[in-house]
Amino acid sequence: MDNHLPAVVFFLVIIGVGALWVATMLGGIGGSSAYSMWWGLFFVPYPIGWSMGIGGPNTPRWVLWPGIVLGIWYLVMMFLMINMSHRWTETSVEAGAVAGLIGIIGVVTIGGCLYRLRQQKAGRGKAVSDHNCF
């Protein structure tokens, strides 16, 4: 799977960004638009692919730290959507579901980056101890 990871990430990001472009051309989703917030599920491949690319195997440390920041931003977006959902009385349930999905993606992104950082640190420590043969 690791050999195909860049292609999978690229495909997911292209599908999600393409869905964003199509939704923009159609006038958006939710609110007074003709399309409900549930059409936003077509955007989900974009953050999933992005998160997979950030926290994937052999990711440099300098990419993992901004990945954690990105995951925190997803959590902030979740709280902003929940806070603003009271204004959209007819779509508050849909907004809550989308906000929950964004929050889950944020937590998974943070967890994946922390896991990779810890894995890299453990790998480096093992390599150092292997060289200290007295």
Q: What does this 3D model show about the protein?
A:
It is a single chain. By secondary structure, the protein is mainly α. Helices cover 71% and strands 0% of the residues. It is built from 4 helices and no strands. Residues 125-134 have low confidence and may be disordered.
The number of distinct β-strands equals 0
Helicity level, as a percent range?
over 70%
- Compute the number of helices: 4
What is the number of domains?
1
Query: What's the average pLDDT?
Result: 81
Largest sheet: none
Order of helices and strands: HHHH
Termini gap: 39 Å
| Structural category | mainly alpha
Radius of gyration: 19 Å
Strand content: under 5%
Short descriptors:
134 residues, mainly alpha, 4 helices, 0% strand, flat, disordered C terminus
Which secondary structure elements does this structure contain, and how are they paired or packed?
Blueprint: H1 5-25, H2 45-54, H3 61-84, H4 92-131
Helix pairs in contact: 1-2, 2-4, 3-4
Question: In summary, what is this structure?
Answer:
By secondary structure, the protein is mainly alpha-helical.
